[in-house]
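Morning F.,

Quick status update on the modeling queue. The single chain you submitted on Monday has been processed. Sequence for confirmation:
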Amino acid sequence: MNKLPYLNLGCGVTFHKSWTNIDFVAEAEEVIAHNLLDGIPVSDNHFQVVYHSHILEHFSKTKAKDFMKECYRVLKPGGTLRVVIPDLEMIALNYVKYLNESLQGVPGAEQKYNWTMLELFDQVARTQSGGEMVNYIRDTTNNNDAFLFERNGHEVERIISMIRGDGENTNASHTSIPPANSLWKGISKRIKNKSIQLVLGKDYEAYKVGKFRSGGEVHQWMYDRYSLKRLFEETGFKNAQVKSAFESTIPEWSSFNLDAGNGLVRKPDSLFMEAIK
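C-alpha cells below.
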C-alpha cells in the first residue's frame, strides 16, 4: 500500500495503514518503534499532515515545546498539525459543577465528583500503574459506568473488562503457556529487581517510584484551548483552531477512524485542535 504523506505519532494501537505510524513501542508491524524524546526520525518538510493524540501531556512542559518544534520541522509548508489532548477546561468545569451538586446533595453527584478529582490529579500524582483510577473502576458500588463511558468513550469498556475480569479466563483450558523468551525475560527482570533491592535496601521503594514516574505513564502537563493555542504559536504554527472529533481540514478525515468511528468519539474527554505551518 502506498503511504499518504501523513504521520501519526505515539499511535499505540490506533493507527491507519496508509499513514506512517511511529510510537515508543511497536504494537504492530505497521508501527515504527522510536523514542520520540529523541526527536522524529524524518527529514525536514516531509509530511503534509502530522497527528498525535493523548501524547503531548506525557511530555514535560519543556520537552513538549521541543516535540512541537519537531512536528513543525517535518511538516511541509502549509501542512496541518492536529493535536488531541485531555481537555483541562472541561475537567475544571466538571469539577465546579459536581462540587456544587455534591454540596447540594444531588443524587449521583458525589461519584462524578470523585472521578473528576481523579481526572485532575491521579494521572499526575500516581506512583504506580493505573493509580487510584484502577480502584475506582474496580469498585462496582460506584454505579457510575454510564459517566465513565460519557467521559472516556467506549474504550473504557476494555479497561473495565481487564480490571474487573470477565470470567472467561478462569478456566485452565484458556490459559496459554508464554513463549520461552518471554519467560526468560520475566525471570531476568525479577533477578535484576531483586539485586537492586538488595543493593538499595530501604531506598528501593523510592527507586521504584522514581523509575515509574519517569516511565511515560504519568501526565506531566495539562492544556486548555488557550494554552495549547499559545504553544502552537510559540513553536511557529498559525491559524490554531478548535475542531471536533469529526471535523478537520485534513482531506477525508472521517475515513481514517482515528478520533471517531461509527459515529462515536474515541476519547470524548479530549480537546481537538489544528494549526498550519
